[in-house]
Amino acid sequence: MQLEKQLQHAQCTFPFSYLGLLKTNNAFTITAWIPNATSIKVIDLVTDKAIGSLKRQAQSDLFTAEFTKGNPPAVYAFEVKNAQGSYRIIDPYQFQDQAFHAVHFVDHLPKNVYQQLGAQLIDLEVGLKTPIAATRFAVFAPNASAVSVIGDFNYWDGSCLPMQKTDFGYWVLVVPGVKAGDKYKYQIKDAHGNELPHKADPVGFYAEQYPSHASVVFDHEQYQWQDTKWQQQVKGDKYTQAMSIYEVHLGSWKRPDSQSGKTYLSYHELVDELIPYVKDMGYTHLELLPISEFPFDGSWGYQPVGLFAPTSRFGGPDDFKYFVDQCHQNGIGVIIDWVPAHFPEDGHGLARFDGTHVYEYEDPRKGWHPDWNSCIYDFGKDTVRQFLVANALFWLDKYHIDGLRVDAVASMLYLDYSREADEWVPNVDGGNHNYEAISLLQWMNKEVYSHYPNAMTIAEESTSFAKVSRPVFEGGLGFGFKWNMGWMHDSLHYISKDPSYRRYHHGEMTFSMVYAYDESFVLPISHDEVVHGKGSLLRKMPGDEWQQAANLRCYAAFMYAHPGKKLNFMGNEIGQSAEWNHDSSINWHLLEFDKHSGIQALYRDLNKLYADYPALHELDHDPAGFEWIDHENAEQSTLGMLRQSKEGKQQVYAVSNFTPVPRSNFRLGVKAPGEYSILLNTDDKQYWGSGHSQNKTIKADKTPWNNQAYSISVSLPPLATVFILYKGQ
């Protein structure tokens, strides 16, 4: 009777010990637990003949029979009758070996986490002409007393399909007939038998939106990729290639017509609208704010719950594959924001997954993030480390993602991040570095570059932590790139000043070159800079309407001249007036006005210039590619620099005037005699500039200037940056 109660109340820990086919010396028994059944007949599926019936045990839903004649069937089904009629099911509990197979190799390689756990579609080769299609479920809940898989296929009844606990804390079961598209969750009882909120699958590949947040069985083998040409082209040294990144929040880049009744553009609609735009604008990469499934729109994806599922707000997993595929076919790389630092407390998620801290640190001084009211992963647990590293590889494997921008790295590195003196726990050496997180990031980067050498990882790291983008074998964290938050902060602070005060802040625009080669930097003007009251990029600029636009154009061009890869958030490129709002679209209507269409035209031309001229990107991370020509002219607030390609084969000078005062006959030192030509002038009328007169071709003379043997005289427009190409003698 004890077994019946356990099964009835979904409290059975080891169903394989009781259910299914069990052999004895000269006989075998078959036992089934099928709620609401009135009779059960056993069918040998090889012969399709009945071998007997099971008997109800003590008016319960437990049925059993002992068979003393004949051999056990290789595979069998039940013909079940109930008050509603009859149906046939294949007994899940006869596939014990196949179920245990799910967790045999999880610990060997990170990839095995998403190849073995979750809901895996399998074919059961059991001697029939046609294999039996089934789904193998496996979930890690080491401190649970019982786990059941619930879903469409069993009316969400936790008593129907109890899972088997393994020695290592995984729960497993193979369920024939469960197919792609079926919804499911796990019903979990904690160590004391208390039922927890139904949990989505931590390794679920597809998830429904509110209110169910159900996981969905998904077949990753159906999509046929067409990006072979791209995969062959992306090989090569990323540091010497042009990289201009367009950062996008898919939910608010553009909204559907209000008549459509839809909240968002779908992945397919984004293919039709976003990709042509990015291609036309000349960006080399798209960077998507977190694409992993998340419950709250207002988190922008930075509070993810389903790390292995692309958000279904815009379509299914294959729709997102199609989006990435089409990006590649159009020559655009795809980077996604990846969030391994923390996760929210939503009941269907990872928090206290089995009633204990399975994924997060138990001590709130390490496991609770005060800034974001979220849980911090326990970076010291092997299972958590495998889970996170596997997830990084998963996106590169299943979705052909080209890069991972890792969010909030600083919060992972420091135990005292955003904490008061008595709110954190020192490491074993008494310091504030989280050694567990450091080693996790190093392992992740090693695995990524080992398996996907053409991919890249980018750290959003805001401190002076050493060697973030240096190899692990050199003692670094192993990232390919690091966001240059210092450059971003200093340059925005400078450009927001009234031009009459900029001479007192001149060093803010030059200081970045003191440390420019300590890391491999990306220069970011990201979403964080145009939200939460910070104002749009345009509104950061001082002055009247014309001066604001001119300042923005001058600053944007300075960014493209400065060493480092480039990143701009959507809306910057049209001079959006309002700060970003995730609940609405970019203000595309502004392009009806010359000011905004001119700013857009400048960004388009800057992207093209940056990509077309190796001097502007080839040595972004090599001191040989840069030289200050004039960085001491604080009084006039001008800056002049030289960018050159390998071995100085191509030389491009950039000079910026950060005041509204035009400077005729402005002299700039150059390295060689000969002819120079204007490549781009941000003050041109096509950009809504003043059209200040400028000779397109300039001849160098022997007048020494700026510690150079030669110089040129240029007409430097107000609030403008000018690019000048050395054409030769």
What labels would you give this structure?
single chain, 729 residues, alpha+beta, eight-stranded parallel barrel, seven-stranded antiparallel β-sheet, 14 helices, 35 strands, 26% strand, transferase
In short:
This is 1,4-alpha-glucan branching enzyme GlgB. This protein has 729 residues and is α+β, with helices and mostly antiparallel strands. 20% of the residues lie in helices and 26% in strands.
Task: Please provide a written account of the structure.
The protein has 729 residues and is of the alpha+beta class. It is 20% helix and 26% strand. The chain contains 14 helices and 35 strands. An 8-stranded parallel barrel has the order 15-16-19-23-24-25-26-27, surrounded by 4 helices. It has a 7-stranded antiparallel β-sheet with strand order 1-2-5-4-3-6-7, with no helix packed on it. A hairpin with a 2-residue loop joins strand 6 (76-82) and strand 7. The longest helix has 19 residues, at 594-612. The radius of gyration is 31 Å and the shape is elongated. The model has no long low-confidence stretch (mean pLDDT 96). It catalyses: Transfers a segment of a (1->4)-alpha-D-glucan chain to a primary hydroxy group in a similar glucan chain.
- N-to-C terminal Cα separation, in Å? 99 Å
Overall pLDDT level: 96
Helix fraction by DSSP (H/I, runs of at least 4): 10-25%
Question: How is the largest sheet built, in terms of strand order?
Answer: 15-16-19-23-24-25-26-27
Oligomer: single chain
Q: What is the strand tally?
A: 35
Radius of gyration: 31 Å
How much of the sequence lies in strands comes to: 25-35%
Shape, per Cα inertia axes:
elongated
Low-confidence stretches: none
Q: Supply the number of helical segments.
A: 14
Give the class from helix and strand content and strand pairing.
Answer: alpha+beta
> How is the main sheet built?
8 strands, parallel, barrel
